[in-house]
Design brief:
Order of helices and strands: HHHEEHHH
Structural class: mainly alpha
Radius of gyration: 16 Å
Distance between the termini: 51 Å
Number of strands: 2
CATH superfamily of the domain at 5-142: dinb family like domain
CATH architecture of the domain at 5-142: Up-down Bundle
Largest sheet: 2 strands, antiparallel
């Protein structure tokens, strides 16, 4: 079985989620319009979706990743991440990287290595969102950030950005920015984002 960068990123994501206390659930995140608990629910929907996809690459049964209705506490998400990591390992052992995988929520059928890159992008960017919102460290392997950036550059077209669109405008970063900061800027985040003090949030 081959290894894959997504496994380390998922481990990091589980660590950050598990270290988030309930009193930070209402903290704003860099993901526009979502506080910590809302972003956790978003992650639960996506993680559940990809767990099913990887367990049954050619199948028709797919949950709606945008309509997660279960519990959303940190323990549930940490457990879901663990389940997804197990599905990734099993899929790698079965040769998922060269298989065809149906991902209708993202528009069709893709090679397995491309689907795993989708997971890397989701985990790296949203892991940073949660970590930055809750004052935690987030330092993924630069290769994972590069992989995520390549994936998003293929997916995010200019017409998908702006008000009412799925993605915010790209944020310029310095020419010597790290791989993570370049990824964040492309994903519409300012690497310098910090949460406003609670007194300023009303």
């Amino acid at each position: 079985m081959s290894s894959h960068p997504v496994l380390a990123v998922l481990d990091d994501l589980a660590r950050v989620i598990g270290a988030t206390p309930p009193e930070q659930d209402t903290a704003p995140t860099p993901c526009a319009g979502l506080d910590v608990v809302s972003l956790r629910r978003h992650l639960l929907g996506g993680i559940g979706y990809f767990t099913v996809v990887l367990a049954d690459p050619g199948g028709d049964a797919r949950p709606d990743p945008r309509n997660y209705t279960g519990p959303d506490d940190t323990g549930v998400l940490v457990a879901a991440i663990g389940e997804l990591s197990g599905a990734v390992r099993a899929a790698l052992a079965d040769g998922i990287e060269t298989a065809s995988v149906r991902v209708p929520a993202l528009g069709g059928t893709f090679r397995g290595d491309y689907v795993l890159s989708m997971l890397v992008a989701e985990a790296v960017v949203h892991g940073w969102d949660i970590a930055r919102a809750t004052g935690q460290a987030w330092d993924p392997d630069p290769a994972a950030s590069e992989q995520a950036h390549t994936l998003l550059a293929d997916q995010i077209k200019p017409e998908y950005r702006g008000e009412g669109m799925p993605f915010a405008p790209e944020v310029p970063v310095s020419v010597d920015a790290t791989a993570l900061d370049r990824l964040l800027g492309f994903a519409g985040r300012s690497p310098e984002w910090t949460p406003a003090p609670a007194t300023e949030r009303g």
